[in-house]
Each structure stands twice: as structure tokens, then as C-alpha cells.
Amino acid sequence: MAREVLQPEESLPTEANLNRRLRQEKHMTETHEMDALTEALSIIDRALGEMLHRELVSTNEVADLLLDIRLLVASEAAVLVKN
């Protein structure tokens, strides 16, 4: 029967280990935030590129674009609230 061997840094929650974990979690949150922002900017840029060459843009197309951006922002906000 195999037993899990705890590394010294995992066996006791020292202040240094807690600080390291907090830094890792912060980095993960910042990375997730950056991914969400990059995706939102990509959606905006794509839509602007499509709409730039048109004289008229329907209300439905603008609403769809705003809803896509809202969905990204709302999902990111939900992740931040959990953390």
C-alpha cells in the first residue's frame, strides 16, 4: 500500500508557504483577468472590422456584440467574487 509523502513545505502551513500560495493565486487571477480582457478586445476588434465597411448596422447586431462583451465581463466578475 503506497503512502503519500508530504514535502516539508507542505507539511506545515508556515508564513512563507502561505505567502507563496497567495502569490500563486494572485498570479492565476491576474492571468485569468488578462485572458478575459484579451478575448473581449478581440471580439470588439472583430466586430469593428466587420462594421467599419458598412453604412448601416442593425440594432440586433449591436445588441449581440454588447451581449457577448457583457457575458465575458460577467463571467470574469463571478470568478473574482469567488476568490
What would you call the structural class? mainly alpha
Please tell me how large the radius of gyration is.
21 Å
Number of strands: 0
Low-confidence stretches: none
Strand content: under 5%
Indicate the percent of residues in helices: over 70%
Q: Could you spell the SSE succession in H and E letters?
A: HHH
Span from first to last CA?
A: 37 Å
What coarse outline follows from CA principal-axis ratios? elongated
Q: Tally the helices: what do you get?
A: 3
Major sheet summary line: none
Integer average pLDDT: 76
Task: Write up this protein.
- This protein has 83 residues and is an all-alpha fold.
- It has a domain of 53 residues.
- It is 78% helix and 0% strand.
- Helix 2 runs antiparallel to helix 3.
